[in-house]
Amino acid sequence: MTSPSAAMPRALLLQIRRDPQVQAEEHASFVTHGRLAASQLDVLNVFATPEFDASVLHDYHALFVGGASDASVLEPHRYPFVASSIQLLQHCIAVDLPVFASCFGFQLAVLALGGEIVRDHGDYEMGTPAIQLTSAAATDPLFRDMPDPFRAVSVHKERAPALPSGCELLAYTTACPHAFRVIGKRFWAFQFHPEVDRATLVERLTHFKTQYTHGDEQLQQVLGDAAETPESNALTRKFVERVLVR
Fewer CB atoms < 10 Å away: N or C end of the chain? Predict the structure, then answer.
């Protein structure tokens, strides 16, 4: 694996999206908020390539992991890429390859570290909740200058009731842990979506409204209550600037 170049870091996006429109939007969101060139972020879509190993990371300086509305980490029998993804994250931890894992990536990371994910069948987070910081955030490279609380896009039916050992909790809501760093590693995971802003939330939740809402009335209520999320969106850029480019 080559050493990172300050001028042109290259990263791989592990993408868990079926819909071509959402695939393109997710890639563009990471590029935009990370202030990357599109050519700096390649994509491995797990629906197209469900089985892979650590060799996919050759010549990359970091791994980004996106969200998913078409899969569950709790159903590896239906989605064979879950096992491959968990093994890839375990490899990143072992070799200390920088990782920025969002939503589905957070859940994969929890399982990779021996933790538990549960499914909420009724009420679950959907919108832009206020997320609180822990005392550990004050010295974290990404969170040290975040306001407390901050708003972020969060839409998920599955969550971690607690973090596994070896993790440092950085942010949370009453519903669940929302951000952690693997202790001693350049590995961050977020249950919320740092790469998604309010405008993208409107587009994406409208696209997936039958999966997350009970109809147009609930959808409009969620979107009407949604706030702008500039502080959480800045985390993607901070990861690039403070971890990859030093």
Answer: C
**pLDDT tens for each residue of 155-204:** 888 999 999 999 999 999 999 999 999 999 999 999 999 999 988 877 76
Q: Is residue 36 part of a domain?
A: yes
Q: What distance in Å separates the CA atoms of residue 215 and residue 211, rounded to the nearest whole number? A: 10
Residues 200 and 36: their CA atoms lie apart, in Å, by: 18
C-alpha dihedral (175, 169, 98, 153), degrees to nearest 10: 30
| Count of domains observed in the chain | 1
**Which pTM does this prediction carry?**
0.90
Is the residue at 237 inside a domain? yes
Higher pLDDT, 234 or 125: 234
Which CATH number characterizes residue 26's domain? 3.40.50.880
**Residues paired with residue 169 on neighbouring β-strands, in sequence order:** 180
Task: Give the chain's radius of gyration (CA, Å).
Answer: 17
State whether residue 4 is helix, strand or coil.
Answer: coil
Question: Any idea which residue has 């407390």 for tokens?
Answer: 148
Q: What pLDDT shows up at residue 6?
A: 46
Could you give the 3-state DSSP secondary structure of residue 83? helix
Distance CA 173, CA 123 (A): 14
Task: Work out the angle at residue 51's Cα, subtended by the Cα atoms of residues 49 and 53, and round it to the nearest 5 degrees.
Answer: 110
Mean pLDDT for the chain overall: 90
Task: Give the β-pairing of 118-119 and 158-159.
Answer: antiparallel
